[in-house]
From TrEMBL:
Matches recorded under Gene3D superfamilies: 3.30.300.30, N-terminal domain of ligase-like
Name assigned to this protein: Phenylacetate-CoA ligase
Segments passing through the bilayer: none
Keywords: Ligase
UniProt keyword Ligase present: yes
Domain AMP-dependent synthetase/ligase: 118-275
Classification via Pfam families: AMP-binding (PF00501)
Native species: Bradyrhizobium cosmicum
Amino acid sequence: MTAYYDALETRDQAVREAELFSRLPGVLRSAMTAPAYAERLKGLDPASVTSRAALAGLPVLRKSELPALHKASTPFGGFVAAAPGSFARLFTSPGPIFEPEGRQADPWRGARALFAAGFRPDDVVLNTFSYHLTPGGFIFDASARALGCAVIPAGPGNTEQQFELIEAYRPVGYSGTPDFLKILLDAAASTGRDVSSIKRALVSGAAFPPSLQAEIRARGIDAYQAFGTADLGLIAFETTARDGMVVNEDLIMEIVKPGTGDPVTEGDVGEIVVTSLDPHHPWIRLALGDLTAALPGPSQCGRTNMRIRGWMGRADQTTKVKGMFVRPEQIAEIGRRHSALGRLRLVVTRQGEADAMTLKAETAITSDALREEIAGTLRAVTKLGGNVELVSPGALPNDGKVIADER
């Protein structure tokens, strides 16, 4: 039994980068046959985009924009050149956002995540993600079948029928939310049903705090987390090393300053941006609105791809102050106008019965003149007045928070 899904997982990172970016120009050419990408990337020479620095110069496409774009140009907002009939399945997620499933084997790139969690060919897997209109159930179903597993398409709910299936088919694996796994285990314990065949799990779609991890482990199930979306499938996953999540193959992940497309300083928390390399349905710099940070070095399990700390919250911190929206990209613009500044955080509070803002700015320069200049920029950019507090470099938390609403 091999320790890895394939040789791609342990190749030198420089080799991986070279291979991914050698494919990117062709993917960009395919993307630009779709009208929306053609407009967004107008004037671009795809052959020039062969590095992370060059990729960072392209505009980001925010997932939060997709509902309006899909409504304006159904079904895919003009970002897919292929006809809907060229795909295998067609889904919708809240928004609505319309998502197609490709016809290739493992279209959601999940087989290697299941493998890393201990799933193997011929395992029986209980899949409790929903199969109704949204892609969740099919993401894990297709991934397990690509690995060679048999899948029980259980979906969520109806624990009594689930127990009948578990006792009949004796699944060794579970895929679903960690919350529903606990519901199943609790219900089985209270009713005397036998679910002891389940020994491993790949969970996603909800928080999996250490207390719940310990409880699941104590019940004899080795559970791992995966991070994915309905647009891209499985993006990153835990391994036996339990040292963060390893980014999936065939994806280029960037971590950018919230509200911008600019890469963060190495190790800083920022927003996840993903470029996929499927020419039939490419995503070019899709900003997911989720926060994470890169971890240094390869995983101790031997997989060499980029590691991240996992999901660390939402990047969209837009808030309303005195009736006006203040956005992370506005705070980033203040930083661009003052090169002496490091991390910034706008703290919104109440003073008396009115909203109040304080911009905390890291800088090695502490002068009243700089404070006044920044206050002027804050007003010019946000159209709102606020205080400015200069703090020493490193004083603000590395948590990706740009706007802290403390009202």
